[in-house]
Amino acid sequence: MAAPKKGRSANAQSRPGRTLALILIAIVALTGGMFASGETTPRLGIDLAGGTSITLEARSGQESAINKTNMDTAVEIMNRRVNGLGVSEAEVQTQGDRNIIVNIPKGTNSEEAREQVGTTAKLYFRPLLQTDSGTTTPSTTPSETSSGSASPSKSSGDKDADKGADKVTSPESSSPTATATSQGRAVTDALKADSTPSSSASESTKASESPKTTDSASPSATPTVDKETQALLDDYNALNCADPKQRAKLGKGKTTDTIIACGQENGGWSKFVLGPVGVDGTEVKKAQAILDTQTAAGWKVVMDFTDAGGDKFTEVTKTLAAQTPPMNQFAIVLDDEVVSHPQVTSAITGGKAEISGSFTQEEAQSLSNMLSYGALPLTFKTASVTTVSPALGGEQLHAGLIAGAIGLALVVIYLVVYYRGLSLIAIASLLVSAIMTYVIMTLLGPAINFALNLPAVCGAIVAIGITADSFIVYFERVRDEIREGRTLRPAVERAWPRARRTILVSDFVSFLSAAVLFIVTVGKVQGFAFTLGLTTVLDVVVVFFFTKPLLTLLARTKFFGNGHKWSGLDPKRLGARPPLRRTRRPAVPADPKEA
Amino acid sequence: MSKLGDLGARLHRGEVGYDFVGNRKIWYGVSILITITAILGLAVRGLTMGIEFQGGAVFTTPKTSISVAQAEEYAEEASGHDAIVQKLGSGDEASLRIQIAGIDTPAADKVSAKLAEDMDMKQSDVAGELVGPNWGDQVANKAWQGLVIFLVLVVIYLAIAFEWRMAVAAFIALIHDITITIGIYALVGFEVTPGTVIGLLTILGYSLYDTVVVFDSLKEQTKDITKQTRWTYSDVANRSINSTLVRSINTTVVALLPVAGLLFIGGGVLGAGMLNDISLSLFVGLAAGAYSSIFIATPLVADLKEREPQLKALKKRVLAKRAQADQDQDHAADGSYDDDSEEATPAVVGPRAQAGPRSRGRSGRRR
């Protein structure tokens, strides 16, 4: 590893007290931070705290479909689902490249959760019949829409612009001509006049945020609402989307039914009446978020349909284009929730479409992910459902901790017997290491959701050995130096550069294996690898900033410096060479030659 | 223990020096034998795969006085499949771990209901764990992937930090450790679970850790080897093993102690499934790792190094010199290096046995 730096060793040599003080301050600060954060125990993993862990395995007709993008999309959708259930703290994450692990804390209906995550997402395009979404109300936008250039005042609103404020265009429409349409999110056909990029910004009008605008919008929708949907309309009027219970009742309709749905936008909820499914999500071949550099319209989402999907989409857009707002929109419905409802002003042919409308990159990517998910050639199979009761986990943790304590005690006994006084330094270092590990693990809980699971406990116990090894390497070097006839103080300094290199080289190997394990492996192995990596890093920190300076300091004491019988550094016991040896050395011709 | 301290001193002075490298053929033989046994064991007996690799369900009951045999009967009756029942913990009141292979989700729910009824418990007390047959396979597949990636990286790293011969030797030693561990699992019939796989993967880092410490000392001691004619590469390699022997013993003991704690106390007495699995493979692997870094890795490096022309030439020179010394002093210097030999060859270029290469290394650094 890195060649030892002379400057540094000289520093540590001259100011061991300062280094020690620094690390002790750091430890106190970390510990203080831990108490300040209010978390004084590491977050326990699902195996120790109890709960349900569901492992889903991706399946696909084509192997190549199981890739990071698809898996990430699936995770995003599943997250929406489990947390949409009102399940807080549920974690959804990919593990490896074909597994998704859903960890649901105890107290959740695991049966329901299992169903929720296990089924494939349903993505549909439905014509929009009615909505209270303010953005769709034409009356709120006309003034801005007609403007051919983006007004600076809108830019601030762009970020908040909901996906509802999208417009769909066919991708060919990149020419910057202003649309003739009166609405901001005009949809144009490639053959017709195109919307100006700037006009897309206009949708961001904040009027959309107030649900009150809805009512004014609804009358315009009524003419098309037939008798059968009248009942629906009543339900619709009674619906309060902000209530999760009411939302949960929705979305049981068939694909051919007219349904009521909710959608989140601008931080609030909007409700919708939606017609029968026009295009199925699986008919989206691919969706992508791209930055439109040509027209400076910002981020947009580009969709590719399959042949059949493209035909259907043409059909749907043709009908929609003929409607008046707000019924000239189609809703993109994912899991019975409206994620976007772009407006259409003309039929879109060719199986390609663009949705634009002052998206941020994140919004565009999120929408394209959802669209992609409908087309995701993945299904998920439940590979394992693990119910862990906390009692069991607690028992195992208990056993692990007892075992760790006994193991530690044995190590301490061994060190005391073998290294005598020197073992005090080793034990103090182990203690510092243990405190730091505990505090950092606790702090990592809220910071990166680190949870201590059983394998991680094992990792920490195994790490005792790795940590102790560094001291052994160093102590043996020091003792070698003493055997060569040096007194303790020079011995401690001379032994350090070489011990340091050995420690760094071997810890690097350890860390490499932990890192590879962490990145490559799945599930429980990761927690184990993480702990191992963490303790390896801490080992280096402790040896460099605690053990070494401490030994340097203690070498100045009488007890250690004079090689007391119980110091573990007694030259006689170590079988040091008689001093006569040293006088002889300069006579050896090899030395000058190489110097 | 103080004996070990004395051993350290004697090793340091070169009074004790087991000829690891000189006897390498014996150890290669032993290792080849072990490897063949392991492969045979694997081929004939195969590995006992845990339920994670077969698919099925694991139920854990609360503490109960129901006997293992009784629980087995209940489980087989309830599921119609073979069941493995283990006691977790000791004494009359211990919880039971019931593994039933080959049942799926709906069946598992029924079985757990039936089991709870038979054993007179609440169904909610019986923790069920459903394991798909692919779960373990995936863990294992990932493990192999991790192994390959790690090996490639570590060989590159060792080749840079040390040299390719050491990388190759470390690689072989590592494969050797894994083979031994798997072989023992096959022969003894320990159950292979994801915990085992985790343990095995940890050995990777640990076995190499040990090897690297020995190599580090070897690299240092052989730095200026061509500038003297007293020691062959093998001699120095042997010395570096001997000089790190105490450290190797200490390290291994200190590493094995907590693992043994996990294995015998955590796993054995208190009955913790995964703890046991991890610590068992660690225990076997650590022991194998310590063995291989001393008996296999370093002698292999010596073998590989002595194919280099300049080291071949060195060996020739050293042997010629020794033959000469033999004639002069009638002193048998068959590769051993005790204090006498210094007096025997006063004109030698190179310092004393122990301090020599080391002091050279230091002076080199100071430059």
- The counted number of beta strands of chain B is 6
User: What is the ordering of alpha helices and beta strands of chain B?
Assistant: HHEHEHEEHEHHEHHHHHHH
CA-CA gap between termini of chain B: 39 Å
Shape of chain B: elongated
User: Which strands sit side by side, in order, in the main sheet of chain B?
Assistant: 3-4-2-5
- Average residue pLDDT of chain A: 68
Count of discrete alpha- or pi-helical segments spanning 4 or more residues of chain B: 14
**Largest interface, and how many residues on either side?**
A-B, 91 and 102 residues
pLDDT < 50 runs, ≥5 residues of chain B: 332-367
Oligomer: heterodimer
**What percent of the residues of chain B sit in helical stretches (DSSP H or I)?**
55-70%
The count of strands of chain A amounts to 14
How would you describe what is shown here?
The complex is a heterodimer of chains A (595) and B (367). Chain A has 595 residues and is of the alpha+beta class. Chain A contains 22 helices and 14 strands. With 367 residues, chain B is α+β, with helices and mostly antiparallel strands. Helix content of chain B is 69%, strand content 7%. Chain B has a 4-stranded antiparallel β-sheet. Chain B has a two-stranded parallel sheet with strand order 1-6. In chain B, a hairpin with a 6-residue loop joins β3 and β4. At the A-B interface, β14, α14, α16, α17 and α18 of A face α1, β5, α6, α8 and α10 of B. Chain B: Forms a complex with SecD. Part of the essential Sec protein translocation apparatus which comprises SecA, SecYEG and auxiliary proteins SecDF. Other proteins may also be involved. Chain B: This is Protein-export membrane protein SecF. Chain B: Keywords: Cell membrane, Membrane, Protein transport, Translocation, Transmembrane, Transmembrane helix, Transport.
